[in-house]
Amino acid sequence: MFDWLIVGAGFAGATLAERLASVRGERVAIIDRREHVGGNAFDERDAAGILMHRYGPHIFHTNSDQVFAHLSRFTRWRAYEHRVLARLADGRLVPMPINRTTVNRLHDLSLTTEGEVEAFFASRAEHVPEIRSSEDVVVSRVGRELYETFFRGYTRKQWGLDPSELDKSVTARVPTRNSNDDRYFTDTHQFMPLHGYTAMFGRMLDHPNITVLTGTDYRAVRDSLPHRRLIWTGPVDEFFGHRHGRLPYRSLRFRHETLDREWFQPVGTVNYPGEEVPFTRISEYKHLTGQVHPQTTITTEYPAAEGDPYYPVPRPENAALYKRYEALADAVPDVWFVGRLATYRYYNMDQVVAQALATFRRIEAEVPPRAANDGRFLAAAGE
C-alpha cells in the first residue's frame, strides 16, 4: 500500500514525490509512461557523447529564491545566460527579443539612448483601443513592421493560428527592450544543472520511500498498484476520459543532428521567424552545457498539431472548456492536479516547481501525515 501514487515524473511529480517522502516520511510510487524520468526536461548523451535534450532546449531561469534554493539541494549549477538571434529571410542575424541593436541593424540607425529607442517605438506603434490578442500586444508597442518581421510568421508556425486569434499572453511573454541587453531572460537566477537535468531528477527521486516505475501507463496499474491518494500531472481532460471533449494542445517534432564541426551557430538558439521555412528554431547544446567536444549536436523544432501535448493553446474557448474540467477536478476527493498539462497553463519550469511546492504546503495543511492515521489506514486496507 502506497500513501501516494504520482502520475508523471517531470518537475511537478518529482518535486512532490521528494517532499512527501522526505518531509512526511510517506511511501510514494511515481510512474511515467515514458521510459525515463524528467519529463520534457530529460537530457542524455547521444551517440557522439554530447549532452543534449531529447525534447528541445530547456534553460532554467527564475526570480524565485525559494525555487532556486529548493532545486539547489539536488544539483550544482553552471552559470548560463541564454541569448537568441533571429535569422531573417535575407540572412541577417539580429538579437531577439527586439532591442536597441535590433532596431539599429534593421533600419541602419545609430540610436544610443533608451529614450531614442522609445521614441522610435512610439513613432511606429498603432493605437489599439482594447488589447485582446497577441497581435494587439505587439503592434500597439512597436508597430506593424516589426510585428510582421518577428512575430506573425513565427506565431503562425508555432501555434497554427494567426496572432490575431491568440490570447494576448502569448506574445506578452516576449518583451521588447530599449537597451542593448541581448539576454533572452533577465531573471535573478540563470543557470543550467551542472551535470544535466536527468542527474538532478535522479537525486530528487533517490529516496528509500520512493518507488520509480517508468514505461508504465496509469491505466495499466491504477487498480493493481494500491494507493491512498493520487497526484495527476498529465492532461486533465485525459484523466476524465475527455468527457467534455479534448482540450487543444500544440505539439513538436524534433530533428536531432550531430555535425562533424565544433560549432554550428554563434548562440544557443537561432529563431527562424519567416514562413519561408517550416521550422521555428535551431538550438545548439554545447552553448548551454559548456561541454568541450570536437563535434556539435543541434535540434531543429517543427511545430505540429498532433503528437505529445506540449503547449496549452491560449484561446478564450479553450479556457472555458478547461473551466469545466477544473470543476470536475475540484470535486474529486484525494486527487491533486498539478503541472502545465493538469492545470492547462503555459508554465515555465520554475513556475511548475513553485506550484508543486505550494501544493505540498496545501497537503501539509489539509492531510494528516500517515503516522497519525496508521490505525485507520491499516484497518481500511484489511492489514
Portion in helices: 25-40%
What form results from the Cα inertia axes? globular
In order across it, which strands form the biggest sheet? 8-7-13-14-15-12-16
Taken as a percent bin, the fraction of beta residues is 15-25%
Separation of the first and last Cα atoms: 10 Å
Query: Looking at CATH, which topology of the domain at 2-37 and 205-247 and 313-381 would you report?
Result: Rossmann fold
**Biggest beta-sheet profile:** 7 strands, mixed
Structural class: alpha/beta
State the fourth-level CATH superfamily of the domain at 2-37 and 205-247 and 313-381: NAD(P)-binding Rossmann-like Domain
**What gyration radius follows from the Cα positions, in whole Å?**
23 Å
Number of strands: 17
Average pLDDT: 94
The number of helical elements comes to: 14
Top-tier CATH class of the domain at 2-37 and 205-247 and 313-381: Alpha Beta
Q: Write the CATH architecture name of the domain at 2-37 and 205-247 and 313-381.
A: 3-Layer(aba) Sandwich
**Low-confidence spans: pLDDT under 50, at least 5 residues?**
375-383
